[in-house]
UniProtKB/TrEMBL annotation:
This is Hydroxyethylthiazole kinase. Its EC number is 2.7.1.50. InterPro entries: Hyethyz_kinase, Ribokinase-like. SUPFAM superfamilies: Ribokinase-like. The gene is thiM. NCBIfam families: PRK09355.1. It comes from Butyricicoccus pullicaecorum.
Amino acid sequence: MDLTYQAGALCDVLRDRQPIIHCITNYVTINDCANAALAIGASPIMADSPEEADAVTTHAQALVLNIGQLSPRKLDAMLLAGAQANRMGIPVVLDPVGVGVSALRTSAVRQLLETVHISILRCNRSEAACIYGMHVNQHGIDSDHSISISDGEALARALAARYHCTVALTGETDLVANAFHLYRLEGGHKMLSRVTGMGCIATVLCAAFAAASDDHLPAAIAALGAISAAGEIAFEKAGHLGTGSFHIAVIDALSQMDAQTLSSHLKLTEVSHADTQ
Protein backbone atom coordinates (compact mmCIF):
# COMPACT_ATOMS: atom_id res chain seq x y z
CA MET A 1 0.00 0.00 0.00
CA ASP A 2 1.24 3.50 -0.86
CA LEU A 3 2.64 5.03 2.34
CA THR A 4 0.99 8.42 1.70
CA TYR A 5 -2.39 6.73 1.41
CA GLN A 6 -1.65 4.49 4.41
CA ALA A 7 -0.72 7.42 6.64
CA GLY A 8 -3.74 9.42 5.53
CA ALA A 9 -6.11 6.51 6.12
CA LEU A 10 -4.99 6.35 9.75
CA CYS A 11 -6.80 9.66 10.31
CA ASP A 12 -10.16 7.95 9.82
CA VAL A 13 -9.11 4.83 11.75
CA LEU A 14 -8.09 7.03 14.68
CA ARG A 15 -11.43 8.83 14.75
CA ASP A 16 -13.25 5.48 14.69
CA ARG A 17 -11.21 4.00 17.56
CA GLN A 18 -11.03 7.11 19.79
CA PRO A 19 -8.08 5.69 21.76
CA ILE A 20 -7.25 6.85 25.28
CA ILE A 21 -3.83 8.50 25.43
CA HIS A 22 -2.12 8.78 28.81
CA CYS A 23 0.05 11.91 28.67
CA ILE A 24 2.69 12.64 31.29
CA THR A 25 3.63 15.93 29.79
CA ASN A 26 4.65 19.56 30.08
CA TYR A 27 2.52 21.86 32.27
CA VAL A 28 3.22 24.78 29.92
CA THR A 29 1.52 22.95 27.05
CA ILE A 30 -0.74 20.42 28.77
CA ASN A 31 -3.96 22.16 27.75
CA ASP A 32 -2.84 22.40 24.12
CA CYS A 33 -1.89 18.72 24.15
CA ALA A 34 -5.29 17.72 25.53
CA ASN A 35 -7.14 19.86 22.99
CA ALA A 36 -5.02 18.55 20.10
CA ALA A 37 -5.68 14.96 21.14
CA LEU A 38 -9.42 15.63 21.27
CA ALA A 39 -9.29 17.48 17.95
CA ILE A 40 -7.66 14.58 16.12
CA GLY A 41 -10.09 12.05 17.62
CA ALA A 42 -8.30 10.66 20.69
CA SER A 43 -9.24 10.85 24.37
CA PRO A 44 -6.50 12.32 26.60
CA ILE A 45 -5.87 11.68 30.27
CA MET A 46 -3.10 13.47 32.16
CA ALA A 47 -1.89 11.78 35.35
CA ASP A 48 1.68 12.31 36.58
CA SER A 49 1.51 11.12 40.18
CA PRO A 50 3.66 8.03 40.86
CA GLU A 51 0.85 6.74 43.07
CA GLU A 52 -1.46 6.25 40.08
CA ALA A 53 0.67 6.48 36.91
CA ASP A 54 0.75 2.74 36.24
CA ALA A 55 -2.92 2.28 37.15
CA VAL A 56 -4.00 5.03 34.75
CA THR A 57 -1.87 3.52 32.02
CA THR A 58 -3.88 0.28 32.22
CA HIS A 59 -6.81 2.18 30.70
CA ALA A 60 -4.80 3.67 27.83
CA GLN A 61 -3.99 2.60 24.29
CA ALA A 62 -0.78 4.70 24.14
CA LEU A 63 1.52 6.58 26.52
CA VAL A 64 3.34 9.93 26.14
CA LEU A 65 6.45 10.71 28.22
CA ASN A 66 7.41 14.39 27.86
CA ILE A 67 10.21 15.72 30.10
CA GLY A 68 9.49 19.39 29.42
CA GLN A 69 9.00 20.18 33.11
CA LEU A 70 10.93 17.45 34.83
CA SER A 71 11.22 16.52 38.49
CA PRO A 72 12.41 13.36 40.25
CA ARG A 73 8.80 12.64 41.20
CA LYS A 74 7.59 12.98 37.61
CA LEU A 75 10.44 10.75 36.42
CA ASP A 76 9.30 8.08 38.89
CA ALA A 77 5.81 8.32 37.40
CA MET A 78 7.20 7.99 33.88
CA LEU A 79 9.21 4.89 34.76
CA LEU A 80 6.19 3.25 36.40
CA ALA A 81 3.86 4.15 33.53
CA GLY A 82 6.43 3.07 30.95
CA ALA A 83 6.91 -0.31 32.60
CA GLN A 84 3.14 -0.84 32.64
CA ALA A 85 2.81 0.21 28.99
CA ASN A 86 5.52 -2.28 28.03
CA ARG A 87 3.76 -5.05 29.93
CA MET A 88 0.56 -4.22 28.05
CA GLY A 89 2.30 -3.91 24.70
CA ILE A 90 0.96 -0.42 23.96
CA PRO A 91 3.06 2.23 22.21
CA VAL A 92 5.24 4.61 24.23
CA VAL A 93 6.29 7.97 22.74
CA LEU A 94 9.20 9.84 24.31
CA ASP A 95 9.76 13.58 23.93
CA PRO A 96 13.21 14.39 25.44
CA VAL A 97 12.61 18.15 25.68
CA GLY A 98 15.86 20.02 26.29
CA VAL A 99 17.96 16.93 26.91
CA GLY A 100 21.51 18.14 27.46
CA VAL A 101 20.46 21.42 29.07
CA SER A 102 20.95 19.90 32.53
CA ALA A 103 22.39 16.77 34.09
CA LEU A 104 18.92 15.87 35.38
CA ARG A 105 17.41 15.86 31.91
CA THR A 106 20.28 13.94 30.36
CA SER A 107 20.24 11.32 33.10
CA ALA A 108 16.45 10.98 32.95
CA VAL A 109 16.38 10.43 29.19
CA ARG A 110 19.17 7.89 29.45
CA GLN A 111 17.29 6.04 32.18
CA LEU A 112 14.04 6.04 30.22
CA LEU A 113 15.70 4.77 27.05
CA GLU A 114 17.53 2.05 28.95
CA THR A 115 14.57 0.79 31.02
CA VAL A 116 11.47 1.46 28.88
CA HIS A 117 11.03 0.22 25.33
CA ILE A 118 10.23 3.37 23.37
CA SER A 119 8.08 2.99 20.26
CA ILE A 120 8.57 6.49 18.84
CA LEU A 121 11.28 8.99 19.79
CA ARG A 122 10.01 12.46 18.82
CA CYS A 123 12.63 15.19 19.09
CA ASN A 124 14.53 17.89 17.24
CA ARG A 125 18.01 17.47 15.74
CA SER A 126 19.85 18.91 18.77
CA GLU A 127 18.08 16.52 21.12
CA ALA A 128 18.84 13.63 18.79
CA ALA A 129 22.52 14.62 18.65
CA CYS A 130 22.72 14.88 22.44
CA ILE A 131 21.14 11.45 22.90
CA TYR A 132 23.57 10.00 20.38
CA GLY A 133 26.50 11.50 22.31
CA MET A 134 27.52 14.44 20.12
CA HIS A 135 28.49 17.85 21.49
CA VAL A 136 25.67 20.32 20.87
CA ASN A 137 25.59 24.12 21.07
CA GLN A 138 22.58 24.50 23.34
CA HIS A 139 20.23 27.46 22.93
CA GLY A 140 17.66 26.71 25.60
CA ILE A 141 15.41 23.93 24.34
CA ASP A 142 15.56 25.06 20.70
CA SER A 143 17.34 23.09 18.03
CA ASP A 144 20.92 23.84 16.97
CA HIS A 145 20.53 24.99 13.36
CA SER A 146 24.16 24.10 12.61
CA ILE A 147 23.10 20.44 12.52
CA SER A 148 22.34 19.85 8.85
CA ILE A 149 19.54 17.81 7.34
CA SER A 150 22.06 15.16 6.24
CA ASP A 151 23.40 15.00 9.82
CA GLY A 152 19.81 14.65 11.02
CA GLU A 153 19.22 11.80 8.59
CA ALA A 154 22.27 9.94 9.86
CA LEU A 155 21.19 10.54 13.46
CA ALA A 156 17.66 9.33 12.78
CA ARG A 157 18.93 6.08 11.27
CA ALA A 158 21.46 5.55 14.06
CA LEU A 159 19.00 6.13 16.90
CA ALA A 160 16.34 3.98 15.25
CA ALA A 161 18.86 1.14 15.07
CA ARG A 162 20.23 1.69 18.58
CA TYR A 163 16.86 1.80 20.35
CA HIS A 164 14.83 -0.39 17.97
CA CYS A 165 12.25 2.33 17.55
CA THR A 166 10.83 4.79 15.06
CA VAL A 167 12.53 8.19 15.21
CA ALA A 168 10.59 11.35 14.30
CA LEU A 169 12.87 14.39 13.97
CA THR A 170 11.10 17.71 13.55
CA GLY A 171 12.55 20.83 11.98
CA GLU A 172 12.32 22.83 8.77
CA THR A 173 12.31 19.42 7.10
CA ASP A 174 10.92 16.58 9.19
CA LEU A 175 12.54 13.15 9.16
CA VAL A 176 11.02 9.78 10.07
CA ALA A 177 13.12 6.63 10.26
CA ASN A 178 13.01 3.05 11.44
CA ALA A 179 15.56 0.27 11.03
CA PHE A 180 14.76 -0.10 7.33
CA HIS A 181 13.48 3.19 5.91
CA LEU A 182 14.05 6.93 6.15
CA TYR A 183 11.65 9.57 4.87
CA ARG A 184 11.74 13.33 4.50
CA LEU A 185 8.54 15.29 5.07
CA GLU A 186 8.36 18.80 3.66
CA GLY A 187 5.69 21.34 4.47
CA GLY A 188 4.28 23.12 7.47
CA HIS A 189 4.81 26.82 8.10
CA LYS A 190 7.47 28.80 9.93
CA MET A 191 4.81 30.32 12.19
CA LEU A 192 4.55 26.93 13.92
CA SER A 193 7.92 27.68 15.53
CA ARG A 194 6.58 30.95 16.97
CA VAL A 195 3.88 29.29 19.08
CA THR A 196 4.86 27.28 22.14
CA GLY A 197 3.66 23.70 22.35
CA MET A 198 3.67 22.63 18.72
CA GLY A 199 6.42 20.09 19.35
CA CYS A 200 4.51 18.73 22.34
CA ILE A 201 1.39 18.49 20.18
CA ALA A 202 3.36 16.58 17.53
CA THR A 203 4.39 14.10 20.23
CA VAL A 204 0.80 13.57 21.37
CA LEU A 205 -0.27 13.11 17.75
CA CYS A 206 2.43 10.44 17.35
CA ALA A 207 0.90 8.57 20.29
CA ALA A 208 -2.64 8.97 18.97
CA PHE A 209 -1.79 7.66 15.51
CA ALA A 210 0.37 4.87 16.98
CA ALA A 211 -2.67 3.73 18.96
CA ALA A 212 -4.52 3.41 15.65
CA SER A 213 -1.82 1.39 13.84
CA ASP A 214 0.35 -1.69 14.29
CA ASP A 215 3.13 0.03 12.32
CA HIS A 216 4.80 3.01 14.00
CA LEU A 217 6.42 4.34 10.81
CA PRO A 218 3.20 5.42 9.06
CA ALA A 219 1.85 6.53 12.45
CA ALA A 220 4.75 8.95 12.92
CA ILE A 221 4.44 10.14 9.32
CA ALA A 222 0.72 10.74 9.82
CA ALA A 223 1.38 12.68 13.03
CA LEU A 224 4.07 14.96 11.61
CA GLY A 225 2.07 15.33 8.41
CA ALA A 226 -1.02 16.32 10.39
CA ILE A 227 0.69 19.11 12.35
CA SER A 228 2.38 20.36 9.15
CA ALA A 229 -0.92 20.35 7.27
CA ALA A 230 -2.65 22.08 10.18
CA GLY A 231 0.06 24.76 10.14
CA GLU A 232 -0.43 25.39 6.42
CA ILE A 233 -4.22 25.54 6.73
CA ALA A 234 -4.06 27.72 9.84
CA PHE A 235 -1.74 30.23 8.20
CA GLU A 236 -4.04 30.58 5.20
CA LYS A 237 -7.04 31.23 7.45
CA ALA A 238 -5.60 33.19 10.36
CA GLY A 239 -1.89 33.81 9.93
CA HIS A 240 -2.43 37.46 9.03
CA LEU A 241 -4.11 38.01 12.40
CA GLY A 242 -1.08 37.00 14.45
CA THR A 243 0.23 34.08 16.47
CA GLY A 244 -2.70 33.89 18.88
CA SER A 245 -5.27 33.42 16.13
CA PHE A 246 -2.89 31.10 14.28
CA HIS A 247 -2.57 28.98 17.45
CA ILE A 248 -6.33 28.46 17.68
CA ALA A 249 -6.57 27.87 13.93
CA VAL A 250 -4.10 24.97 14.24
CA ILE A 251 -6.46 23.23 16.67
CA ASP A 252 -9.37 24.02 14.35
CA ALA A 253 -7.52 22.45 11.43
CA LEU A 254 -6.70 19.33 13.42
CA SER A 255 -10.36 18.99 14.39
CA GLN A 256 -11.32 18.91 10.70
CA MET A 257 -8.44 16.69 9.53
CA ASP A 258 -9.48 13.64 7.54
CA ALA A 259 -7.79 11.08 5.30
CA GLN A 260 -8.17 13.11 2.11
CA THR A 261 -6.90 16.34 3.67
CA LEU A 262 -3.90 14.66 5.29
CA SER A 263 -2.94 12.65 2.21
CA SER A 264 -3.19 15.69 -0.05
CA HIS A 265 -0.80 17.68 2.18
CA LEU A 266 1.82 14.95 2.67
CA LYS A 267 5.03 15.73 0.81
CA LEU A 268 6.94 12.51 1.38
CA THR A 269 10.27 11.40 -0.08
CA GLU A 270 12.19 8.23 0.78
CA VAL A 271 15.92 8.71 1.30
CA SER A 272 18.23 5.89 0.30
CA HIS A 273 21.17 4.78 2.47
CA ALA A 274 23.55 6.08 -0.17
CA ASP A 275 22.07 9.57 0.13
CA THR A 276 22.87 9.79 3.85
CA GLN A 277 26.50 8.76 3.51
